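Exercise 4. Each item below gives a protein and its sequence. For each, produce the structure-token representation.

Item: DUF5017 domain-containing protein (Bacteroides cellulosilyticus).
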Amino acid sequence: MNKKLIYSLCAATLLVTSCDYNEDNFPGFDNNPVTDVVYYEGEYTGKYPAEGYFSLTQGDEETGKAVIETALVSLLETTYPYCDKGSSAKLTVKVATIVPGLVEPELADSYELQSADYDAMGTEKDEPGQYDNFSYKMDVNAYLTVFCKSKYPNAADGDVVKITYQYYSNYVTSTLSKLYKKSAGEWAEFINFAPSITYTLVDEDYDSMGTGDGEPGKYNNFDSKISAEKITFYLTTFAKVKFPYVEKGNTIELTYKYYTEDKKTENRTVLYQYNGTEWVAYDPEEPIIEIADRITVMKYDGTSWKLTNLISGVIRQKMESEGYTALVAWVKENKPAFMSDQKDNEEYYFGASAGYNNINNNYSTWSKYYNVDGYLTGLDNDAIQAIMDQRIAEGISGIVLPLMVTDPDPDMSYEITYNVYAGRGKGDYAMSFYYNAEEDKYEWDELTPVLK
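Answer:
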């Protein structure tokens, strides 16, 4: 949809003897200069980067937004070279949200324990030197932090080392690694990534996958006769059944037995992430890229186009009688001086009429008859209109929207249409708002109301 709206009002002189605009015989008009205000809504038709989409990288979103803004400004300046202040545009663009993968910290050293290292930790029963490995009965971190202190006496605070070791569990010896970091003179395990869930399969788990020939429960392990795709199917199905209430984004580390072709049983570990529907393979070092259509909100400030917001969608609603009534009720209780002196269902703080279900923007009525404490004295129509816009924005965001929306979404724009009498022109106008979750309130995007 492509809309270009040029607002213009013809001058007219009328003899008005009443103070309220809602009279049967005196509708009235206000003088307004001709302006070229553009409102554009549609698909972005400019050039994308080589990937075919714009990118927003977590932690560096401003760089991505700057690239998007530059591209959109170029398109809008070419399309609308002579637009006026108050112009706005909503362009749908393809944007990839990128969550960078984990990067292993720079290592001061990487070391694999030797037989002598295990022996130095003790050779008695249930000590590492007994079989040159650790086991489930031992506190690996307790041994390795002491080892690091001895191995790296001159390490600086902040140094990170990787220690590789042998670990015996469930009759299987595996090669594992851990990172350790020196901080405040002491060594401690450095966890670069920690899965939401860690779980090691037991015999009952294999049995639940089937005990027939070629099935995991036959020997309580996987083997080379079961394809990698089939193993993934077994494990992801198992995870979904075993952990049915996980949230989207949670990760799981599963450890299982695998019987190799050289007739050795070893422990293998796999990572999965829950995407809201199923468990899928996950590598924490790989970036997560999600491509979706986003709506860019552009505003022309009289000099240049600016990107003011980036949203996922627009929810459009029309203000009904309940909204106008709520505005009048609020003014009656909080700003009684602005109530109409002719009708008890009209007010001139927001300009709402619960009788006509519209908003009065008649400049002369406001300035002549409801200029409370002289706050409009000396202001021209443009300045009065700015106050009117600010007032109705306050009313919609603070009074009407909380009545209309019960479950606000901070990633959406709420476009509210209301009916206007006089002012910049009679008709239905729309304002857009966003929900600020941190402050639990709606905020106006400060774009000029758009004639629908």
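Check: Residues 197-285 form one domain.
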